[in-house]
Amino acid sequence: MRSFTLIDFVSLFAALRWTVALVVLALAFGAPLALAFATGRISRFAGLRWTMAACIQIVQSVPLLGLLFFFYFGMPMFLGIQVPALVAVTVAYTLYTAAFLGEIWRGGLEAVKQAQWEAGSCLGLSAWQQFRHIIAAQALRLSLPPTVGFLVQLIKGTSLASILGFVELARAGQVVSAATFQPLLTYALVAAIYFALCLPLTLWSRSLEARLDGSR
Amino acid sequence: MNFLPLWRYQNQLIDGAIVTLELTVIAALAGLLIGVAGAVALNGRITPLRWLVRGYIELFRNTPSLIQIFIVFFVLPNFGLKLPAFEAAAVALSLYFGAYSVEIIRAGLDSVPKNQIEAGQCLGLSGWQVFRHILLPPALRNAYPAVTSQFVLLLLGTSLASQVAADELFHVAGFIESRTYRSFEVYAVICVVYFTMAMSFKALFAIIGLAAFRWPRRR
């Protein structure tokens, strides 16, 4: 047993690297997939719509912890080779991000009235031009606040990677707490760091919501 | 892949699923109580109380549920309050669900236009009658989808209780894994069980919603 020192404090902040890295990876791979999900869900082809909907339902109906374990133990089985844990975790967070962001973005796309598409085609725009210049532009405005809100969920969700041994913020907290026997100080600090990361995003999301009011 | 060794653990799986459901229902009921009380306080006139509720909401919505469970389980004993794993998880998840419920219920109440309430008062309805006949039905209908989807997220979130060894479904999975060494198979089965429970609740809530509100109703 030893006392809580500056080194423990620093190690918590150093562990933030992994929290940030996991968020960045989840967004880098998850966001493009989310766009595919969102556009697939409003596609003209019923088969594609149903497949996308089923994928999203499955991911949203399983705990994130379950997804992480499924791919952590499953990746070597699917691929037949041992992969680094980071790969498995990235796949799990990517799907998680894609499913939730996909639904948020679909909501934004569907909130744009059908007449807007028709107006675009009356102007002689191609389907892609209608999507790009009329629909996506308005959907972006509607989807931005909940997208920022989801970032908070994602940051909080990276705490689960601690269970698979990633020394991110939550895991660093466990390590420091076990070494110093100061759970109160340690977890209060960990919570404060998460809070300092998430609160600005929450407030930003709220101000965006007020500013980009969809009813205008 | 070999799922056969898992077959003899079906009783543990069922027990784990029951504990998961218990945890979910307890946290949901306690959280909804907190939600109603918090929404009333937020609409009330006592400024310090409003700040207190605001602070509670922001604190619990902007920190991970896992850390909240750790704090209740590992930190409260420092203050002489040692809770067993299940109780600790129930307390932490109730507070987490409560923080989201306050906002959902408040938004539901706010969604009713003020002039409708005034119209009711003009008709000579009592405060209770205004609440019961004018405020409550649309508020319930508007809050219902958010409450139910939050409930499903809570059901999935109870898996975090496994990290303080509450004997719910995910913890049972760890136990079976340690006995059979069939890691992938165990967690695949667990995912299917959670999926089935979540989908059943979604279907149930959709049916209740259709029956109660003929939802979605076009205005």
From TrEMBL, chain A:
GO cellular component, one term: ATP-binding cassette (ABC) transporter complex
One Pfam family here: BPD_transp_1
Subcellular location: Cell inner membrane; Cell membrane
Molecular function as annotated in GO: transmembrane transporter activity
Main location class: membrane
Residues of the signal peptide: none
Keyword Hydrolase: no
Transmembrane region(s): 15-38, 50-73, 79-101, 142-164, 184-204
The organism's place on the tree of life at top rank: Bacteria
Alphabetical keyword list: Cell membrane, Membrane, Transmembrane, Transmembrane helix, Transport
Membrane topology according to the record: Multi-pass membrane protein
SUPFAM superfamilies: MetI-like
Domain ABC transmembrane type-1: 12-205
GO biological process: amino acid transport
Protein family per UniProt: Belongs to the binding-protein-dependent transport system permease family. HisMQ subfamily.
Protein name: Amino acid ABC transporter permease
Species: Bradyrhizobium barranii subsp. barranii
Automatic annotation (TrEMBL), chain B:
Cellular localization per UniProt: Cell inner membrane; Cell membrane
UniProt keywords, alphabetically: Amino-acid transport, Cell membrane, Membrane, Transmembrane, Transmembrane helix, Transport
Pfam families: BPD_transp_1
PROSITE patterns noted in UniProt: ABC_TM1 (PS50928)
Main location group: membrane
GO biological process, one term: amino acid transport
Limits of the ABC transmembrane type-1 domain: 17-205
Entry membrane topology: Multi-pass membrane protein
Gene3D superfamilies, per database record: MetI-like
Matching InterPro entries: AA_ABC_transptr_permease_3TM, ArtM/GltK/GlnP/TcyL/YhdX-like, MetI-like, MetI-like_sf
GO molecular function terms noted in the UniProt entry: transmembrane transporter activity
Cited CDD domains: TM_PBP2
Family the UniProt entry places it in: Belongs to the binding-protein-dependent transport system permease family. HisMQ subfamily.
Function per UniProt: Part of the ABC transporter complex GltIJKL involved in glutamate and aspartate uptake. Probably responsible for the translocation of the substrate across the membrane.
Subunit structure of this chain's protein: The complex is composed of two ATP-binding proteins (GltL), two transmembrane proteins (GltJ and GltK) and a solute-binding protein (GltI).
NCBIfam families reported for this sequence: HEQRo_perm_3TM
Name used for this protein in its record: Glutamate/aspartate import permease protein GltK
Organism: Bradyrhizobium barranii subsp. barranii
